[in-house]
Structure formats: structure tokens, C-alpha cells
Amino acid sequence: MRNRAQVFSVDFIIALMVFVVLLIASEWVWSAATENIYFTEGRNDLELLSRNAASLLVQSTGNPSYWNNLSDFNSTAIYSLGLCKNRPWLIDEAKVARLNSLNNTNYTTFKTLLGIRGPSYEFHLNISKFDGVKFNNLALIGKWPNATAENVVRIERMAVSSSDRNWTKVILLVWKECVGATCY
Amino acid sequence: MLLKKNRKSIIFSLDSLLALVSGITLIIACFFYISQIQTIQWGQPALYIFTMDSLNALKIDGTLENAMESGSSTRLLLFLNNMLDVNTCGEIELYNRTGSLRLSVNKTSCGNSTQIYVARRTLILNNTVYYATMRSWYK
Q1: What contacts B31, CB < 8 A, 6 or more positions away?
Q2: What are the domain boundaries of chain A?
Q3: B43-138 in CATH: which number?
Q4: Measured between CA atoms, how close is A133 to chain B, in angstroms?
Q5: Would you kindly state where each structural domain of chain B is located, as residue ranges?
Q6: C-alpha span between A42 and A16 (Å, rounded)
Q7: Which of B33, B73, B90, B100 has the fewest CB atoms within 10 Å, counting from its CB?
Q8: Mind listing the pLDDT tens digit for each residue in A32-41?
Q9: How many CA atoms lie within 13 A of A142 on its CB side?
Q10: DSSP class of B59
Q11: What is the mean pLDDT of residues B104-110?
């Protein structure tokens, strides 16, 4: 009887060890996979919404198209922001000037109208015009990514200024502000 | 019921060994499938969109039409050298209706690449159809 009991104990211990090893390995694999998916999905979300926002700016007039003439700048009166005059890629400088005059006092409204609505998502918009030698800034809107910001997405679009047909660059940075020790 | 000690021990050890082997196999299989997850290379569509934007901008401001008429590449070269990022290369070609090359401009100090993004735009000049091609790639 004594010998038999020992055999069962050893067997049980081995089985338990295998089970524990499997359990730990599964947890490890699960964590790695979850982190990978979370990071990838977070990046995809940022990339997609920043592309959409940049397309809105460069390829649409906005809704309503005369939004720059409205005295109220809020998401009730304006449904979307677009910088074009009457055709895609032709930037209306009056709209750019209006954006620049509003600047950071309407940062949250900008975010809403551009569709940048993720948690802790921030943006920076730079519109500059080439004068034949160098770029001159027409508008600088939003924040700058801080040192701990991860997943900064940079979208660069080309267009033409409506006033003098000079080449104009629209550069949009979108990122997620880090909260706590980790940031995906 | 009494069993012989040695034989039983062997049977149970084999059982554990099998469990261990199947467990390790499962883990390896999991890792294999996880490693197959592919992320989108967002830089590639971004460069294509920028290439398309460039041709549209050059069409709207009349650069393509002027270059086609005059055969001068000065402004196209100015565009390539100033609008494209330092790490981006580009080439613009203008073709006649028949498909013969009219003009070809390359960004200065650029090599070749195996991964090139191509955009095309059609132009109508004096009731004749022409087309412009822009290729871009990362250095």
C-alpha cells in the first residue's frame, strides 16, 4: 500500500507541474497577443481617423461651405471642416485665416469637427505655403505631441492656394496622449 | 486489486510525457499563428496619396499644362526638390497622346527602389489628350 500511494503522488505532482506550466504559458501567450492586438488596433484607429480628417480638409469645402463666414464656431452650426474653395485640392485662404484666428480657443470644437474623438487623442495642424524658396506658415493649430506621446501619426497632403496658386502643404499630426505609465 | 509497481509507473510517466508534448505543441502552434498577424504598412498608402495629391496640385496650378506646352522641366524639378520630403524620391513623366515620352524629370540625388508608387492623371490641352505619371518611393 505504501509503495502504491507514492506512485500516485509522483504522478499527481508531474501532472500538476504540466498543468501549471501550461497555465503560465497560456497566460503569457494571451498577454502577448492581447497587447499586440491592442497596439495594432490603436494604431489603425489613429491612422484611419487622421487620414479621414486630412481628406476632409484638403478635398472638401466643409459643411456648410461658407462656415468661415459664420460668427458661431461650434458643432451645432458647423457639421464638418473643409478648406477647399470650390474644388478639391484648391485651398481657400480665407478659410485658413479663419481657422488660424480661432486657434486654440476652439481646440475641442476643432477635434469634434475633424472627427478626432478617441480617448485622449490630440492633434496639431500646420498649413504652409511655398513661395518659391521656402514655406511660410499660414496656420498653426492645436497642441504639440509631448515627449511621452506614442503612436504619433503624421499625414502630409499637397494642395494649391486659391489666392496665388502656390503649392500648399497640409500637415496633420494625431496622437494619443499618454495616461499613466503605459500608453498604447 | 494490486498492480505491479514498475509497470504502473511507466504507464503514468508516459501519460505525463504525452501531456507535456501535446502542451508544448499547442504553445508552439499558438506562437506560430500569433506571428502570422500582419500589420498594415501605413507608410505605403500615405506615399501613394501624396503622389496623387502632387499630380492634382500640379494640374490645378497649370504646371503640367505649361510643361507639356513648353517642354520645360524647371518648375517640375522645383516641385520635386522642394515638396518631397528628404527621404522621399520622385519622378514625373509627361506623355503624348500616342504614348511617346515628352518629358521626364527626376528629383536630384535620388537612387532607385524596388517598391514604387505610381499615380496617373489625364490632361486635355488644345483638345488633345495627354497624360502625366508620377512615381515616388522611399530612399
Answers
A1: A29
A2: 2-176
A3: 3.30.1140.32
A4: 8
A5: 43-138
A6: 38
A7: B100
A8: 888 888 888 8
A9: 21
A10: H
A11: 90
Three cell numbers written together for A84: 477647399
Cα distance from B112 to chain A (closest Cα, Å)? Answer: 23
Q: Are A167 and A158 in contact (CB under 8 A)?
A: yes
What is the C-alpha separation between B83 and B47, in angstroms, rounded? Answer: 13
- pLDDT tens digits along A113-169: 999 987 789 999 999 999 988 999 999 999 888 877 878 999 999 999 999 999 999
Residues of chain A with C-beta less than 8 angstroms from the C-beta of B85: 156
Tally helices (H) and strands (E) across chain B: 4, 4
Does B30 have pLDDT greater than 80?
no
Q: Measure CB to CB from residue A33 to each of B27, B34, B56 and give the nearest one.
A: B34
SS3 (DSSP) at A127: strand
Our measurement of the distance from residue A183's CA atom to the centroid of its chain's CA atoms, rounded to an integer in Å, reads 14
- Scanning every residue of chain A, which has its alpha carbon at the shortest distance from the alpha carbon of B8? A7
A108 half-sphere exposure, CB direction, 13 A CA radius: 2
What residues does B95 pair with on adjacent strands? B101, B131
Strands A135-142 and A80-81: unpaired
Closest CA–CA distance from residue B128 to any residue of chain A (Å) = 23
Q: pTM of the predicted model, to two decimals?
A: 0.79
Cell triple for residue A165? Answer: 496658386
Residues of B with Cβ-Cβ distance to A169 under 8 angstroms = 83
Task: Give the rounded distance of the alpha carbon of A73 from its chain centre.
Answer: 22
* A2 three-state secondary structure: helix
- Cell numbers given for B49: 496619396
Give the SS3 label for residue B92: strand
